[in-house]
Amino acid sequence: MCVQAAADAFLDAMASHDASAVPLAAGATQHINQRPIANPAANLQHPNGISAITGRETVIEGDRAVALYDIVVPGGVYHAATRFHIVGALITDIDAVCSGAELCGS
Fold it and tell me: What is the pLDDT of residues 54-63, one digit of tens each?
């Protein structure tokens, strides 16, 4: 799986709440607005109201991807960005920022 496909799988899972296709490495780390997330796969599957990820723009450089996108929830749209580090086709590190205090804990 290429870097773009790994990042896309993660973003797709944010809306589908199905982490089964996300290539997460054992021990993968995740932070949202600098808060550590204990279990990235469980966090993706949590019913948090996200219905879609739109406006995706992804930049790839080597084994890293940075995605800018909008998170659609029933109450509105939040802007977000996520940096992914992919090693051997597996996501090892996820660092996200987003603008929604209710959704992102900012």
Answer: 999 999 999 9
